[in-house]
Structures are given as C-alpha cells and as structure tokens.
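ugh ok so i messed up the first submission bc i forgot one of the chains. this is the corrected input, ALL of the components this time, i swear. 398 residues overall. if the numbers dont match what u have on ur side tell me asap before i send this to the collaborators (the ones from the other lab, u know who)
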Amino acid sequence: MVSNPPADYAGVPLPEVQIITNRLLSAETTEAVLNKLDVIEGVRQINMTGESIPKTINSGPAKGLPNNHTERKVINVNGREMELRYLVGAFYIELEVADEAELDDKLEEIKAACDSCIEFGYVLNVGRYSKYKPTLHDYRSE
Amino acid sequence: MAYKRQFYPGDSIPAKNRRRYMDPKVKLKKLRDVPMDDVVRIMGHRNPGEDYKSIHPPIEEGKEPECPIRKLVVPIEGAKHGDRVRYIQFTDSVYFAPISPYQRAWMYLSRYRGVDTGTLSGRQIIEVRERNLEIMAKEMIDNETFDPALTGIRGATVHGHACRLDENGLMFDGWQRYQWDAKKKEVVYVKDQVAIPLDRKISVGKPASQADLKKRTTIFRADGVDMREDKEVTMYGLRIHKLRTLGGYQPWAFKE
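and heres the new structure output, hopefully the right one now
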C-alpha cells in the first residue's frame, strides 16, 4: 500500500492538536469547524477521521446500490471543495509554532473556534500523533 | 417442593430490568404502534399482503415420517404451515440502549417458542418461521426494549453499536437506514434492514430521553450504574468465575 502523506513531512515533530468530539459531527458542523480552523495562522495541516461512510452499499442483497447518505457530500472550506467520506469524530491539527507561548496562543484560538461550532463538547490534547518524517515503509512503497 | 424460577440477581435498576425483560409473566409496556405492514416492509422478506412462501404440497397433505417428537411437540403456527425461516436482527447501542444483545437472547429464549437466536457483540439475530417472526418483530419494535435512536434494525453491516452517537443522538449507521426527521422530531426508516430503499418513509417515533433510558436500560456502565455497586450481581459473577476456574466442567464437585 502506498501511503502518500496528505502534506509534506515536516521532518521535525511539530506539535499536533488532537480534538476528539463527544458526538460524531454532521457534514454541516464539520464544514463550520474547518472554516474556522483554516484561517488560523500557523496551522500547517488538518487531518480528520471518524466513521467511514461508503459511497455504495458494500455487502448484502443491496450491494452496489448508491448509499445516498445525507452526510456524505462535498463541503466547501474557504473556497476549496472537498468530499467528505467520514462522519467526522476527530481532528488532528499540525501547528508550526516557534515556542510554548505561541503554542498557547494558537490553542486558545483553536478552542474558541471549536467552542463556537461543536455543540456537544470535545476533548483536546496536544502531542504528536502521526509520523513527521519518512520511514522505511515510504521507501519500500515507491 | 416446586422450584420457583429465578431470573437474575441484584437490586440495581439494570438488574431489575433484566429480570423484568426475561420473565414471561411480565407484560412489556407498549410504547408505539408501528403498523404491521410497515414492520414487514422494514424486514424486507416479503411484500405486505403477499402470501407466505410455504412448502408444497402442504404438510397436512404430505406424508410425514413417523416420529415421536413430532407427536409430542405442538408446532408453532409457522411450522404448521411449513413457512420459510426468516430473521430480524437488532443492533443495540452501548449508550444506554433499553436492552443489549445478550439479554435479548435470554429474553427471546424465555418468552418465545420455536426460535433460534444468535448473540454477537453488538447485535442479536432471531430466526423463526415467517408468520411468527412478523408478530414477534412487531412486538419487539413496539415495546419498551426498542428505542428509535439507540436500537437499529439491521440485517447486514451492523457496525455502530460502540460508536459515538451523532449530533441528533442517533446511533451511527454507515448505510443510514434511518434518519432524523427534524420537523417531527422523530426517527424515520428510509431503507429496509439490508439497506434496500423503501417506497416511503416509515416513522418509528420519538427517541426517549437519557434520563428515561437510564431507568429502562439493562446495561451496567461506569457512568450509569456500575456493576460493582450491585453486590449481589458482583457475587454471582464471581461465583460462576470461581466454579468455572476451580471446578472446570464439574462445578458441582467443587466444595467451598
């Protein structure tokens, strides 16, 4: 399996903010959250995960029929269109910051953005949750 | 002395509910009335009004082999007609669904005859002759063991029982067999249990509140009633564990 990173690896373990929401978010809320996070300076990349929503029914007698899930749709993030394939339940925000003080400022901005959109609350942690430099796997996959 | 049947130990709310659901003498409360035709549509085994597919020639005309068990057991209605065996499968959320799969098995076997049931982590299938199944399915959708938001009718791809709920409080379903009707504040089925689209939406009513569900549930949870808070239930679990560990397949041989 080739695993191309969604953004270029930073090479250094930049801090990553993990936001786990208490409820799975609708496409509308995900769009709102992303639009507020996207404008924050210093956000290097945002990855999301959640529960997968298939495009077509993938097993059983209805296999192959379109799924027509109301939350699987194209959302607009500050002018860029993207297709949601998940009912989103977590965000991983990589921040490019110089020091702890700047990190704290960014965290406040991120919290404010989330508080305004995520109705049922979330858990926020700071750490490093994904890889930041190529590993042997990346060389093997080429 | 006639042995009096016991069901489950404990004084906590989930323990009492387990006893209630299992005891066939307790009539479960009916909370909604989904029409029989709609139940048939959601199950998707036959069209409403269509004849049951049964063996031909009918059992009464055919020659049944000589069998003492056949003479002993009174067949259920579907078996008498030689119906097909069909199924309904429920998924129960871990977020205080009124009942959970394992208690469903206890309840089914305690309340109904002629059923075959199978337990999995998040779902419970019940297989039974078609015309009996429809009556049972309606009972189970109408009564208090069903909650529109936290119980799913899912024949295949049941994933979601342990997922977080969505913003409307519905259990996750990748195939979205049911949706939230924001106007009526109700849950509506738009697909049958294997995700074939329905001709029209079928309402199964309003979801219960969390406070109400905590009174109705059979689920012990750290943020509800912790199983360890109910001493009798804990002792019962420990006793079985002890007998199994020290007594193996001969628990009666183990002396305290």
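quick check: The first strand of chain A starts at residue 16 and ends at 21. that seems consistent at least. The interface with chain B takes residues 21-26, 29, 51-54, 57-62, 65, 67-71, 87, 89, 119-120 of chain A (CB under 8 Å).
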